[in-house]
Amino acid sequence: LPSLMLVQARSQHDFEGTVSLLEQRVSDAGWSLVSSTRMNESLAKHGVEFSPRIQLLKICKAAYAERVLTDQRQVAALMPCTIAVYETDDGHVMVSKMNTRLLGKLFGGTVSEVMGGDVARDEAVILQGISG
To answer: Deepest of 98, 99, 111, 131, by most Cβ within 10 A of its Cβ?
Structure first.
């Protein structure tokens, strides 16, 4: 099931380049970068030293969020959309996210229309050219 719920691809860019490119693509696609969290720094604040690097980009498009939240507010637990950039143990840079198309199908209705349609299409544009 995890292989269905998560989509991942190897980036053709280095870690910082991948994060920077994604941040730009998010903006270009008309989305907002809600937050960008370096998990290693966050964990270190709690006494946990962790490497390799992981960065979470939380993104939102207000018009899409409004449509979903108007119809099914409980889906707020899955918002905002998150794109993870992480390093593997062998030094590759990976990008992962939830399979929003499948998630939409599981909920049906407005969630399917928005997350399975609009969000999935926009995410594909944002991620275009990241993997080789």
So the answer is: 111
Give 100: exposed, middle or buried? Use CB within 10 Å, 0-12, 13-18, 19+.
buried
Q: How are strands ordered across the β-sheet holding 32-38? A: 6-10, 93-98, 81-87, 54-60, 32-38
- Residue 36's nearest CA partner among 44, 24, 45 is 24
DSSP letter, residue 131: B
The pLDDT value recorded for residue 68 is 95
Sign of torsion over alpha carbons 38, 40, 42, 44: negative
The two structure tokens encoding residue 63 = 């018009």
Q: Give the pLDDT confidence score for residue 2 in this predicted structure.
A: 72
CA-closest candidate to residue 86, choices 78, 74, 96: 96
Please identify which residue in the block is written with the tokens 């870690």. 15
